[in-house]
Amino acid sequence: MRTPMIKAMTASLLAGSLALSTSAHAVEGLYSADELLDADVYDSSGKEIGEVEDILLGDDMAIHSLVIKTGDVLGLGGRDVVAERGSFTVRLEADDDGIERFDDLDYQIHMEADSNAVKNLPEYDESWWNQTRSGLRQAWENTKKTSESAWENTKEATSSTWQNFKDGARDMKERTTE
């Protein structure tokens, strides 16, 4: 009687962990930072509004933001603004035959915002840098505290559940024996 119950529990635990692991990993593409620099940037209506000036990475080496040079004329003037990840998409232009070629990558950045909203993006300067860096550090500290607490709660719950399972199995064995 014990073996079928253990097999059933093992199967359900494995199925649950597989479901969690497949949903946690999204399909990712591969992009060239060198080609991404100087890529043309378009607003939500398709109007060209600037080009990528810099790529900002977080501690995890994932893109945090793009610095976009907007409003310059013949390389003069304009301003550098920060577009955070999630506010834009990167599109790879394929050749006329529809094939992406390794030696001829050409990216376009498409903003979710219109031209007016882009003008309201934060300016990339020392103040933005310091404020953002401080905010990210604080968020990381908060995440560590929350993770530690969650881990302790998980250990306690797992221990309690395992004890309840063992007690239930023992009771079932005793009833079966009787």
Strand numbers in spatial order across the main sheet: 4-3-2-1-6-5
Number of helices, where a helix is a run of at least 4 consecutive DSSP H or I residues: 4
Give the low-pLDDT segments.
1-27
Classification by helices and strands: alpha+beta
Number of strands: 6
Give the terminus-to-terminus CA distance: 14 Å
How many whole angstroms does the radius of gyration measure? Answer: 26 Å
Strand content: 15-25%
Overall mean pLDDT: 76
Helix content: 40-55%
Q: Outline, from the CA principal axes?
A: elongated
Major sheet attributes: 6 strands, mixed
Query: SSE string, helix = H, strand = E?
Result: HHEEEEEEHH
Keywords for this entry:
single chain; 178 residues; alpha+beta; six-stranded mixed sheet; disordered N terminus
Structural features, described:
There is one protein chain. The protein has helices at residues 2-24, 33-36, 115-119, 126-177; strands at residues 40-42, 48-57, 63-73, 76-84, 88-92, 107-111. Residues 1-27 have low confidence and may be disordered. The protein has a 6-stranded mixed beta sheet with strand order 4-3-2-1-6-5. The relative contact order is 0.12. Strand 1 and strand 2 (48-57) form a beta hairpin. It starts with a helix and ends with a helix. With 178 residues, it is α+β, with helices and mostly antiparallel strands. The chain contains 4 helices and 6 strands. The protein is elongated.
Outline:
This protein has 178 residues and is an alpha+beta fold. It has four helices and six strands, in the order ααββββββαα. The chain has a six-stranded mixed beta sheet with strand order 4-3-2-1-6-5.
